[in-house]
Amino acid sequence: MTSRAQIDLAAASSGLPVAAALPALLCALSGAGRAVLTAPPGAGKTTLVPLALLGADWAEGRILMLEPRRLAARAAAERMAALLGERVGETVGYRVRGEAKIGRRTRIEVLTEGILTRMLQSDPALEGVAAVIFDEFHERSIHADLGLALAWEARGALRPDLRIVAMSATLDAAPVAALMDGAPMVHAEGRAFPVETRWLDRSAAGRVEAEAAAAARRALAGEEGDILIFLPGAREIGRALRLLEGVEAEIRPLHGALSFAAQRAALAPAGPGRRKVVLASAIAETSLTVEGVRVVIDGGLARRSRFDPGAGMARLVTERVTRAEADQRRGRAGRLGPGLCIRLWTRGEEAGFAPFAPPEITAADLAPFALDLANWGAAPGDLRFLDPPPEAGLAAARRLLGALGALDGAGRITGHGRAMAAAPAHPRLAHMMLSAPAGERGAAAALAALIEARDPMIGAGADIGARLNALSAPGRAGAAEGALRRIRAEAERLAKRVGAPPPWRGGGRAPAGPLLARAFPDRVAMRRPGAGPTGAARYLLASGKGAWLPAEDALAAEPFLVAADLDGDATEARIRLAAPIGRAEIDALFADRIEETAACRWNRRERRVSARRRLTLGALALEERPWPEAPEAALAAALIEGVRDLGLEALPWTPAARRLAARGEWARARGAAAPSLAPKDLLAELEDWLAPYLPGCRKLEDLTRLDLHALLSARLGHEGRRAVDRVAPEAFTAPDGGVCRIDYDGAAPAIAAPLQAFFGLDRHPTAGGEALSVSLLSPAGRPLQVTADLPGFWRSSYADVRKEMRGRYPRHPWPEDPLSAAPTRRAKPRARR
């Protein structure tokens, strides 16, 4: 380190709280080689720690510092360079996606967006690097978690002299220190000025941007200093800009989609005698100092990406901030002097805020992470993570990488996968660029740049081809031109990586749909018949998920699309960006994945079997036609599913079949060795007893031809029928010779016959050794008595029955002694006149 830099550092350290902790930090790194530093916002750790490490006797190589945001990385590098009296790219430089300012003399490199991971993949020993600093580690970005895991393994296996520092403003240091084998913990006291906090008296009723704009107008009238307003994202910031038109202040937006020049302008002081209002997303929560701010207005919302592994889609959700995030935002008001924080929620609502945001590794799309792990040659369990990645998300990521050809059948990385890992793009887009025909790679690079950027033409419909055309026509996109200019630069960088010029430099045009299908094979979409609510065009994705387009969208009539961006709704996602694709292009691209199947299925609506041949791509039935030669076994199996769907009552139950089923169950309950005729068993075993009789049957009406009694009898078999007949005979022969069918549906088997048919019977009737319930009927067939003791009836109740009935039915015998009378069902002949 130069003497000039030492002098500047000493001067810059005065008054910054972290200066007091630097000796302890340097001591820990000299001894243990690792440390965890906690310091409140504004303590100066981001600026001073890398500069302090340059002077250590072990710091022969470069110092790398990882920042979670590009703006913070540039700002940190510029601030350190200014303290050294140099330009960025000399002693201090930075590397962010698409931009690098590094020179031969650079000793401190500020990195972001996974650049550290790619450096480790290409050089696991990090030759020439003395230390790695993970700044703002409390944000728990997936890049920081993976970067620390890889750096820690590299230190253990290859570089025991590599120093590692984790720094944070709000981090619970103990778990991180434990992760790094008990790393020393160093704490720097803060220099925060007092901040008054005000809450709303009642819950906000309007949109957050309207509440924030109203609060800003009041603060401009009644408070001093500049104002920093936290809003969820660019959409709300744009609305707030319009609501604040005409106020006496400079209104400056600050979010990730802006150019670096616009972001730098938001951080700079206002003009002489002027005040400024900065409308910021979460980008301003940490690391950055926004000059002049004394008032913070916090909308209390944050926009986060949540990945649904089942849907294979991430969606942006707007959520309440956590208490830690709210405290970070509040601290922005006390960086330069006493301040004020206005919270657009009630004090009572704050009690329901979560303490911390979930680590990104637990909620992110894990495809890039899984590819990096495979490229490193490790499983998640081989590395150290504060929070392990969720298994469902990791499994979904591996399936996608397998489909893209990045992993082989054993889960090992392929040569194509290594090329994908080296490309500075999501694995889907890297595969699209690398697998595209040589003449289409420039167009693929342009599409990749469009997809990874925020949509520059919101409201222009879903056709990504319109954006691609706008990229090729500089200066004609009006308000979107600034955003398109940045996307154009990124496209040229990506095109250079794949060795092809972009379309506007002679790289040739190519239809967007087939290219996108390479990246999103699971999002090839086929239009469904009919329309959704409000007339929307409904689509089915190859993954099996539903999607839709507004009826007025130019793509809404397309039979096939490739959806590059969806809103992530778990039920039916809105398609935000897509391109049409033809059936012939689908056949050519996915010849190895399109399957021809022939199947018989039960059609519930028509109550018949449908036999069809189908060409399918995932969940999409690309083509369907009749299958007239379907085998009888397949038809029968489908009809069986129909019976299961409708229930056993769909079969032609006759009284005889019901009686046999009841007898069978009665007998089995008393130990008879016979197959079950119980409804649940019949339904479960339809393939055994019903299917053999279904040839020629196609629809529900065909089942009426079946003799169900014969089928159940066949199920019992000869021995089963004998067992049932023995324990549960079908009938009882009355003393008069008449046959009485036995009913087995009640608590006891029952018969019914005219009372006179039992004359002379002095024993109670039985079946299979069990007493029958006997219903004694009048000559009119009405029950006179139900008894389980016929001899007792003759001795007791019969006399009363005789007295009442003999006058009503004088032509029928009513002897005084029924046991000595002959059984009969005949009446006396009528007397002749």
Helix content: 25-40%
Please work out how many helical segments DSSP would assign.
28
Structure class: alpha/beta
Instruction: State mean pLDDT (0 to 100 scale).
Output: 89
| Count of individual beta strands | 31
Based on CA inertia axes, which overall geometry fits?
Answer: elongated
Q: Approximately what portion of the residues adopt beta-strand conformation?
A: 15-25%
Largest sheet: 8 strands, mixed
Query: For the largest beta sheet, what order do the strands appear in spatially?
Result: 4-3-5-2-6-7-1-8
Low-confidence stretches: 1-5
SSE blueprint:
Blueprint: H1 3-13, H2 22-31, E1 34-38, H3 45-54, E2 62-66, H4 70-83, E3 92-96, E4 99-101, E5 108-111, H5 115-122, E6 129-134, H6 142-157, E7 163-168, H7 173-179, E8 185-187, E9 195-200, H8 208-222, E10 226-230, H9 234-243, E11 250-254, H10 260-267, E12 276-280, E13 293-298, E14 301-308, E15 313-320, H11 323-331, E16 339-346, H12 347-350, H13 367-376, H14 391-403, H15 415-422, H16 427-435, H17 441-452, H18 464-471, H19 481-497, H20 512-519, E17 524-531, E18 537-541, E19 546-549, E20 560-566, E21 572-580, H21 583-589, E22 595-603, E23 608-617, E24 620-626, H22 632-646, H23 655-669, H24 679-684, H25 686-689, H26 708-727, E25 731-733, E26 739-741, E27 750-754, E28 766-767, E29 770-771, E30 773-777, E31 783-787, H27 790-795, H28 798-808
Parallel strand pairs: 1-7, 1-8, 2-5, 2-6, 3-5, 6-7, 9-16, 10-12, 10-13, 11-12, 13-16, 19-21, 27-30
Antiparallel strand pairs: 3-4, 14-15, 17-18, 17-20, 18-19, 20-21, 22-23, 23-24, 25-26, 28-29, 30-31
Helix pairs in contact: 3-4, 8-9, 13-14, 13-15, 15-16, 16-17, 16-20, 17-18, 17-19, 23-26
